[in-house]
Amino acid sequence: MSYDPDALLDRRRLKRRLRVWQAVTLLVVVGAVLAYLQAQGTLLRGERIVRIHVEGVIVRDDARSRALARLAEDDDVRGVIVHIDSPGGSVVGGEDLYNGLRAVAQAKPVATVMGTVATSAAYMTAIATDRVFAREGTITGSIGVILQTADVSELLERIGVEPVTIKSTPLKGVPSPVEPLTPEGRAATEQVVLDLYDFFVDLVIARRPIDAQAVRRLADGRVFSGRQAVENNLIDAIGDEAAAIGWMVRERDLPDGLPVETVRTNADKDSFLEKITGLAGKSLFSNALTLDGLVSLWQPSAR
Predict the structure, then answer these.
(1) Catalytic residue list contains 172
(2) Quick check: is 107 in a domain?
(3) Considering its fold, how many domains does the chain have in total?
(4) What's the rounded Cα separation, in Å, for the pair 39 and 142?
(5) What is the rounded distance in angstroms from the CA atom of residue 83 to the CA atom of residue 117?
(6) What's the chain's Rg over C-alpha atoms?
(7) 111 in helix, strand or coil?
(8) Cβ-proximal residues to 259 (8 Å cutoff; 6+ apart), any chain
(9) Is a pLDDT exceeding 70 seen at residue 106?
(10) Active site residue 225
(11) Which domain holds residue 79?
């Protein structure tokens, strides 16, 4: 059986092209796998310092909690630097981060570097670490808890809408935007807010070198600059990541020159808009609609 020489040449060219595309595909797949492993913090081996970022609105995140647990157990991770740039978030979100970072700090040095803003639940997060640094112009503090609602019952009446609420007891679903807040409802709500406020203040007393009376004077919801926070012992020093690494080397006996690896600690499934919407629900509407906690979030005035 004879073959056309041109046909043979074409087949050889096609085979070469196929091998080239197979090689390119393999390289792409291998590159994607390596990138994924690097993002998960499982590729790089050897002793290192891990850098994590806490940004935006802080909410409860199971993926982040699992990532922090892995960092605590990884003996090759010699230290952790937490970069915070957040106005705060839910009390439960701050509590989860606080507990996760405290677990890491039991095994290795952990330091915070504050960015532009680290207030409310973000400040709660920061004090879980062993050393807190900020820039001079950082906005921090805002120690407190807030629940906001609105009474739109008169507005609904004006437009001819009559809300109907059927509930087992008078305090169920209080506060609610569709009914006036009674003195009993206000008192019950204030008790919850003040109890969570005491929880926050107790964390500050436990973690910062300030006596309880001074903490309560500082914990009136106000914000502080980085310089003011140092003066009031709310944070430790003015500095950046290099200062945090220097502290670990000097005070916690870490080897100098360790590589620093950035590790993602959250699944990032929810968009920023979804997180804001969720917090707005907690802030503006009844806890009957949003049951997962009050807000510790710095909200600058529009005035």
Answers:
(1) yes
(2) yes
(3) 1
(4) 33
(5) 11
(6) 27
(7) strand
(8) 44, 46, 48, 49
(9) yes
(10) no
(11) 46-297
